[in-house]
Amino acid sequence: MSNPSFAIKGRCPGALQPMASGDGLIVRVRPPLGRLSAAQALRVAELAQQYGSGVLELSTRANVQLRGVAPAQHPALLQALAAQGLLDTDARSESLRCIVLDPFWQPGDGLQAGALALQQAVLGAAGLDGLPAKFGWAVGLPGRPALAAVSADVRLWCADGQRWWLQPDGQAQTIACPDLDAALAAALALARWCAAQARARRAQGLHPGRMARLWSADAPQHIAPPPGCHWQASPVAPHTATEMLAPPPGAQPQGHWLLAAPLGRIPAADFARLAQALAAQGGDAGLRITPWRMVLAEGAPPADVGRWIADANDPRLRVWACSGAPGCDQALAPTLALAEELALHLPPGAQLHVAGCAKGCAHPGATTLALCAQAEAAPAGGDPLFALIDQGRADAPAQAHRAYHRASALLAQPALLQCRP
Questions:
Q1: Is the pLDDT at 132 greater than 60, yes or no?
Q2: What pTM, to 2 d.p., does this model score?
């Protein structure tokens, strides 16, 4: 049993640079510093219904995606996004402005100011051409392990409101900086080094990789910290994006609420209802898009949250699934309905990843259980075959597959998902 080869896109979609898929264009909206005002959120929901499939996706980069956009409608959608201040001036700016700000930032803690200064520094910097296509940043406080597991090539930790630590992805060393200006200079030094390494690999016909792949034991010797900064052992333990740590949904300090989108997808109507509820409260409340398939609502949610998940015990929080067929032209089977149904039968504490192909886009790491669609043709009526994998990734080799089951068998006999030690 095996999967065919699949195409790796090598980049994330944007608004100016959308990605073609089985259901049309994927248009990714990158809200400035990860926040939408209530009015912007309502308009994005309207645009998803007008130009897309009527469903919004929350990405692990704290962005919002519209799917099913017809190419002929793309220019009109861009014009509407620009009118809301949600469109970059050019594709280069869009690709560089990939910053995940800790959604739990508070006024005066330095995080929002730091992320804004980083954005301005990166957009105005020279020497960044050639950066890996998915190069990104994270800005947060060192005591938040959930942000430490978010995909980022460089993390900027605000140590005490004044000092900053810069941590290359997966490394146990940081650059300690006395203030934000020094941290920005160090950040650009790291990015320029990464860009140079990526350019050199491309010249050799190699894939550029990301910071973690480009890093070597002697890398700190070639990256001179700015004056007043120095390399030191990191006070923050390195994490990997595969850990997928996330806070539970529900009430948060300062009257905010975390609400999760099932499998990272939410009907535009429910997105709009939440935006309308925030607007009705007055003030400038908005939505902070998180990298955990959730939004942080700056105020009380509506009485009826619709498809949003507010219960920390909801089993769907432990399930990941890609868009599957027919939405993805590489998927070998539908995934979403199967994943939602199986979530109801998931053993306590177990995680489940349902993948339409071995690329495993929805979850890059190992989960308690993984189901990966197989290339073998489905019987009449369509009943796709899935490999069941214990404690592994979707791309696990055939010898790591525990068993093979049709989708109908999994739905009829959920006990097939019982975990093995």
A1: yes
A2: 0.92
